[in-house]
Specification:
Structural class: alpha+beta
Shape: elongated
Strand order of the largest sheet: 3-2-1-4-5-6
Distance between the termini: 98 Å
Helix content: 10-25%
CATH topology of one domain: OB fold (Dihydrolipoamide Acetyltransferase, E2P)
Radius of gyration: 30 Å
Order of helices and strands: EEEHEEEH
Number of helices: 2
Largest sheet: 6 strands, antiparallel
Length: 125
């Protein structure tokens, strides 16, 4: 199995074009199947910059996937994600953190306390 050629995101040129760095050289990538209306151009550029800043991407024939969550950038732009509020990607740690500490022993369950029933006194008629 071959290693996946990842590229580091460098900058945004416009809403359909980005620049990546791979093996010490820069490469211009034109995103395929992305058509952003002229009035949304600035919002799409800002979305690309915010979404890809400081990340690595996988580029395949104009299709761009963000690492490590494999977000398909072309799809996000095609469906207008630049108009919605953006969520920052957060890496929480390793997928396999290793063995866990042993679980604590459960405390024994106590029986409920027996309360005597009230005594009824019958009256004579």
């Amino acid at each position: 199995m071959a290693a996946v050629p990842m590229a580091r995101f460098a900058r945004v040129i416009d809403s359909r074009t980005i620049v990546v760095e791979r093996l010490g050289a820069t490469e211009v990538v034109h995103l395929t199947n992305v058509d952003v209306p002229a009035e949304d151009e600035q919002a799409a550029r800002a979305y690309l910059q915010e979404t890809l800043a400081g990340t690595y991407v996988y580029v395949e024939n104009g299709k761009v996937y963000r690492s490590p969550d494999a977000l398909f950038i072309n799809r996000e732009l095609a469906f207008g994600a630049y108009g919605a509020p953006t969520l920052k990607m957060r890496v929480l740690g390793e997928i396999n953190p290793g063995p866990r500490a042993p679980a604590k022993q459960a405390t024994p369950v106590r029986e409920p306390m027996q309360v005597p029933k009230p005594h009824r006194v019958r009256r004579k008629r």
